[in-house]
Amino acid sequence: MAFLDNSGDIILDAVLTDTGRFRLSKGDGSFKIAKFAFGDDEINYGNYNSSNTSGSAYYDLDILTTPVLEAFTNNTSTMKTQLISVPRTDLLYLPILKINTVIGGGGSEAQTAMVQNSSSFFVLADTASANPSSATTPWNGVAGVLDGTLTLNNSSYVRIDQGLDTTEIPYSFNIDQMLKETQYIVQIDSRLGQLASEAGGSTNKQPSFIDDDNMAFYYLSINTDQDYVGNVDDTSNAANSSAATTNIDGPRGTFLKFKIKASTELSVSNYLFTKLGGTFTFYGASGRYIDTFVRITGATTGYSIDVPVRFIKAT
Fold first, then answer.
1. What pLDDT does residue 7 have?
2. Predicted pLDDT at 26
3. 58 DSSP assignment
4. What DSSP character marks residue 266?
5. Is 64 exposed, middle or buried (0-12, 13-18, 19+ CB in 10 A)?
């Protein structure tokens, strides 16, 4: 959906997504629009210029004249930044989502940190790549490398913390309940992998649904998915202290933690690696890779974060 301002009239351009058209096509009267959301993906609020010499009326001129996208139906390309309504007017900070990089140690040695010098998590796609005793695949056990076979050969996992990332409000304060995430929406390309709990094992989380673009959606709640969602209870340590288990500076909310299980197709075939990826050398060993993102969205605030992931396989 998009708002188009033409000659003083506000035009509402609304289209159904692929999923919406599919449900409408059933023709059984079950199609009803129960929820909707607004987004401002086109807007860069960094263009607000409070030092404009022409006066305050021009501070937001660049924002107001930003071209607005027309509505399009591909749900993977829109609504990356959702708008929310907050009735309170005394809030100075809003919560964010942030990749935890401190659990298990500091810097690159943390179990939750990305692979050093790569800005990405790596996921091992088959048992040969995940064999920690193999001289040709010395990757297992490296911080930020996840065992995509779920054979528990390493302890790395992804954790996203939520809270107010500011030193202006003491971290020991309780976060306002209206700003606390209790449910997360996770999106991942189902052709590449599935979510699994940090504890690992042979099981993995089943998606709530998979759309027409092969994107799997997971809805994870603190009430029903304690293996994935919990409270950040590190209220006794500053984020920059050696004893901290979070890098959120202010009041903390909840966390989401998970591993990723590589798909069977990646494990037994090189087709997608050839089609979508390439080859590289890591720790002196050669392998194939596919780069992607896992998107995490807070169901309460709409704040989202993209976690970079690289699936790798030994050659």
1. 57
2. 85
3. G
4. H
5. exposed
Q: What residues have CB less than 8 Å from 5, skipping those under 6 apart?
A: 11, 68
Any idea which residue has 């500053």 for tokens?
Answer: 238
Tokens 């607000």 belong to residue? 48
Distance CA 138, CA 134 (A): 7
Task: Output the CA torsion 267→268→272→278 (10° steps).
Answer: 70
Q: Specify the pLDDT at position 118.
A: 82
Encoding tokens for residue 315?
């050659």
Q: Which residues of the chain have pLDDT under 70?
A: 1-13, 18, 35, 73-81, 105-109, 132-137, 153, 200-203
Stated length of the chain: 315
Residue 158's pLDDT is: 94
Where do the domains of the chain lie? 2-77, 96-314
Give, rounded to a whole angstrom, the gap between the first and last alpha carbons of the chain: 45
Q: What is the amino acid identity at position 76?
A: T
